[in-house]
Design goal:
With 255 residues, the protein is an alpha/beta fold. 35% of the residues lie in helices and 24% in strands. A 6-stranded mixed β-sheet has the order 6-7-8-3-9-10, sandwiched between helices. Strands 2-1-4-5 form a 4-stranded antiparallel β-sheet, with helices on one face. The longest helix is centred in the C-terminal third of the chain and has 18 residues.
Length: 255
Amino acid sequence: MAPKIRLEGVKKSFGRKVVLDGVDLSIDTGESLVVIGGSGTGKSVMIKCVLGILRPDAGHIYVDGKDVTRLHGRAHDEVLRQFGMLFQGSALFDSLPVWENVAFGLIQGRGVRRARAREVAIEALAKVGLGPDVATLWPAELSGGMQKRVGLARAIAASPDIIFFDEPTTGLDPIMADVINDLIVSTVKNLGVTTLSITHDLVSARKISNRIAMLYRGKIIWDGPTKDIDTSGNPYVDQFIHGRAEGPIKMEVRG
C-alpha cells in the first residue's frame, strides 16, 4: 500500500535562501508524524508545499500514490478536500460567529446549506468538548484554549482523511497545552485520520506522535519512532531536544 503522503526530493528556495533542500518523507495511513525543528527551518513551507499553497522548485509530492505536485484548478481542489488544518494561532475569522467559523469550508467550499452546516458545526464542537451555547459566540469572546478547540472543530468538520497541525500549543499555558494535546490524541484516534504536525514544543511532540522527524537546513536529518528520540545518537537531535546552546546547531545572533 502506498504511503498516505510522500515527499521525494522536495526543494524550495526564495531568492538565494534555500529553505527545503531535497526533503524525503513519507507518512503511512493512520500514522501521526511530528516534524520538529527550530524557527525558520522550513516546517511551514513544507506543509504549504503539500497543500499546494507553494509550488516546489523540484521534487514530487504524492497523496495516496497520486502525484499532486503540479495540480491546479478543480483537480487541486479535490485533493484539498482530504485535508483539515489547525492553524497556528487558530486563525479564526473575527467577523463570523463560532459556528460559521467551524462550517466555513462546508459552506464556501462544498456548498452545504447553512442550516445543515450549522448542525455539522455543533456536532464538531461537541467532539472537542464545547456545547451548543458556544456556537453563537464571537471569537473575541473566547479564551486562547477555546479558540484552539474551535480551530480543531473546524479542522474535523468536513471529516478529512488527513489533518495538519501547525504549532498546536503555541501561546497556551502548560495546563491548557496539555488539554489540547489530549484532545488531539483522542480526536485523531476516534477519527482514524493521518496527521502531520509541526512544532518546536517537545512535550507536545512526544504526546501527539508515534513518529518524529527533524528538519534542519532543508533536510530531514533524523526520522524514527517517538520512543527512540532520546537515544537517537544524532547530535543535532540531542542538542535540540535538550535545548542546549552548545552543539552543532548554530543560532544566528544579530546585534
